[in-house]
Structure formats: structure tokens, C-alpha cells
Design a protein that fits this description.
22 strands; FAD/NAD(P)-binding domain; alpha/beta; binds NADP nicotinamide-adenine-dinucleotide phosphate; 7-stranded mixed β-sheet; 6 helices; 5-stranded parallel β-sheet
Length: about 325
């Protein structure tokens, strides 16, 4: 059986598309490689989101779970699969996944966000040795940091928001940034400077030590070259993310660079029958927000619907 639409990616964009596809009773399958709910559930499970209208503040996983429940309730099927190949058939497409499964679709909607990614590493002694034993790259549950002494590394929004997320319950949070100023949003910088987070500017972690888990770290001041040792329970590294390899260049769709899909205002791509929405698309004025991704998803599904009902809706 060929689905009316197969949506690749189960974040807010893909799940919203699933919900709207079902309002038109399109048979709908959503394929997600990492975590349904997307970045919200995987990267920020216990961090609050403040810019999703109708929720003044809501934790990432809770918001992600609400999207998933809504999509399931609406009748969209969801499968945990990583799509590795996309082939055009005489009518429609065939998607093959890493597990070897194949799905046929009349139309495809690509909503893979920033794709599969992994955190950037500092590459310092002790980092790999203690990964999972005090060295972490995301906060799975902020309550794990209760009464802990933690070094947070980085100067972007991720590092500052993570420091703010754990500071209320941690014993001490020290933010280590290699420059004399942050690149994060002013709102986050102001909140950190008003909070009990201790900030070390022009500072770099050079060594992590411990026994069964992290016990201390050495930080040096890159202006004075003075070294300081901190007795700590954990190091949270937040210096950005690196994308893993992407199959997009093999799929014959016009791209912007290697990882972004060029779309028109109706969210159609250069290949008839393939649409895209969310963080993976590129168009003039594109802004990466949850709400804009959801809006693009609705536009994309309307285009899918018109394509399927053509010429009635042409
Ligand atoms: P980012 O903005 O790229 O910041 C990475 C930080 O890590 C920078 O301060 C950088 O230092 C530092 N860094 C990089 N490599 C390092 C190294 N080897 N050693 C020490 N420090 C290193 O990454 P991000 O914070 O993950 O944010 C990514 C994007 O998502 C940004 O556009 C951000 O605004 C956005 N974001 C938005 C929100 C929100 O809207 N609430 C939340 C999180 C993230 P330098 O400054 O010296 O380069």
C-alpha cells in the first residue's frame, strides 16, 4: 500500500504535518530516526520553552509529548526508522530504512530538522574517559544535578540556558567561557549575570580527572595562563553540535549547501511530489522557531493535498 504522505522526521514540524494531513484524511506515516518529539524531547527534555504561544513556560519533553499524542490521536502512524534511501517510482516514491524496511508513498514531506547530529567535544584529557560518568553533553533530567558542583562549558544560548536550568538545585554552577563576552541572547546573558552562576571568562578547561567518576577539573586563564583546580561532580559541555552525514545530496533535490532544502512559498521542493518544512528548509527570511516550523507544516500539507487531488485543486 502506498501512503498518501510519508513524513520523514517526528519533531514539531513533522508531527504538526501529521495532524493536519489527518484533517484531510490522508493516510499518513511519520518516520523518526532519533526521538519522537524531536530536539525538544531529546536535547531539552527538562528545559523550559518560553516562546511557544499558549504555554508561558513548558518543559521540552512535555511539549514534545503533547505533539506526539496529538499526532497519534489524529490517526497518523509513527514508526522508529532511519530513512537511508529515497527512490522515485513510476507513480510516487519508495523509502528504504536502515532496518531494511521499505515504504511506498504518493508524496513525501521532509521534516528532519537539523538532521542527525552529535555534540562537539572539547578534545581534552579525561573527557572521553569520563563521558557518562560526570561528563555530559545534555541534561537528561535537571534533578540529577541536585546538590552537585558542576562546570558548564560554552558561551552560546545552549550553555547559558543549561546553567540556568540547573542552578536552582545544584550546589554550585561555574560557567567556563573561552572569551571575554558571550554570544548568547542578551536575555540569557542578563539572567545568568543576575543568577548565582559563577562566570569564568577567558577560561578553558584543560584536564578532567576522577576515579569512578569526575572529581576535579583544571581550568586555565587564557590571558594570564594561570591554572586553577576545581573540585566538581560533573562537566556539562555545550559548545555546539556537529551534523552527522546526510543522505540529502543523494536524493536529487535542489539544496542550499549540503544540508538545507530549497523550498518555494508553498513548501514544494525541486522534485514534484516532495515537500519540506521546518529547520531543514531554506528560503529568504527563514527563521528557525517551533511556531514557524509548525506554520510551514500546514502550508506543506495543503500543497500535498492539492497535489494529490489535482486537477480538482490545481
Ligand atoms: P553556539 O551558538 O555555536 O555556541 C557555541 C559556544 O561554544 C560558543 O560560545 C563558542 O565559543 C563555544 N565553543 C565552541 N567550540 C569551543 C571549544 N572547542 N572550546 C570552548 N568553547 C567552545 O552553539 P549553541 O549554544 O548550541 O547554539 C546553537 C544555535 O541554537 C544558536 O543559533 C543559538 O542561538 C540557538 N539556540 C537558541 C535557543 C533559544 O532560542 N532559546 C536555545 C539554544 C540554542 P565562541 O563564542 O568563542 O565561538
Amino acid at each position: 500500500m502506498a501512503y498518501d504522505v510519508v513524513i520523514v522526521g517526528g519533531g514539531p514540524a513533522g508531527l504538526t504535518a501529521g495532524i493536519y494531513a489527518r484533517t484531510r484524511k490522508l493516510s499518513t506515516l511519520i518516520l523518526e530516526a532519533q526521538a519522537v518529539g524531536g530536539q525538544l524531547s531529546w536535547l531539552y527534555p527538562t528545559k523550559s520553552v518560553y516562546d511557544y504561544p499558549s504555554h508561558i513556560a513548558i518543559e521540552g519533553k512535555e511539549l514534545g509529548d503533547l505533539f506526539v499524542v496529538h499526532a497519534r490521536e489524529s490517526g497518523a502512524e509513527i514508526a522508529h526508522e532511519e530513512v537511508v534511501d529515497l527512490k522515485r517510482l513510476k507513480s510516487g516514491f519508495r523509502l528504504t530504512t536502515k532496518s531494511g524496511a521499505a515504504y511506498e508513498a504518493k508524496t513525501i514531506l521532509l521534516a528532519m530538522g537539523m538532521g542527525l547530529f552529535e555534540p562537539k567535544r572539547l578534545g581534552i584529557p579525561g573527557e572521553a574517559e569520563f563521558e557518562g560518568r560526570g561528563v555530559e553533553y545534555r541534561v537528561r533530567d535537571r534533578h540529577e544535578y541536585k546538590d552537585r558542583r558542576v562546570l558548564v562549558v560554552g558561551g552560546g544560548d545552549s550553555a547559558l540556558e543549561i546553567a540556568l536550568e540547573i542552578v536552582a538545585s545544584a550546589q554550585q554552577v561555574i560557567l567556563v567561557h573561552r572569551r571575554g563576552e558571550f554570544r548568547a541572547m542578551e536575555k540569557n546573558v542578563e539572567a545568568v549575570l543576575k543568577s548565582p552562576v559563577k562566570v569564568l571568562y577567558n577560561a578553558e578547561v584543560t584536564f578532567i580527572e576522577g576515579d569512578d567518576r569526575v572529581r576535579r577539573a583544571v581550568v586555565y586563564d587564557n590571558r594570564t595562563l594561570k591554572k586553577s583546580q576545581f573540585e566538581i561532580d560533573g562537566v556539562l559541555v555545550n559548545i555546539g553540535f556537529e551534523p552527522k552525514s546526510t543522505p540529502l545530496p543523494r536524493w536529487g533535490i535542489e539544496l542550499e549547501g549540503e544540508r538545507l532544502i530549497k523550498v518555494k512559498a508553498d513548501m514544494s521542493t525541486s522534485v514534484e511530489g516532495i515537500y519540506a518544512c521546518g529547520d531543514i528548509v531554506s528560503y529568504p527570511g527563514k527563521d528557525k522557531r517551533i511556531v514557524t516550523a509548525c506554520g510551514e507544516a500546514v502550508t506543506a500539507i495543503m500543497s500535498v493535498y492539492k497535489h494529490l487531488r489535482s486537477p480538482y485543486w490545481a
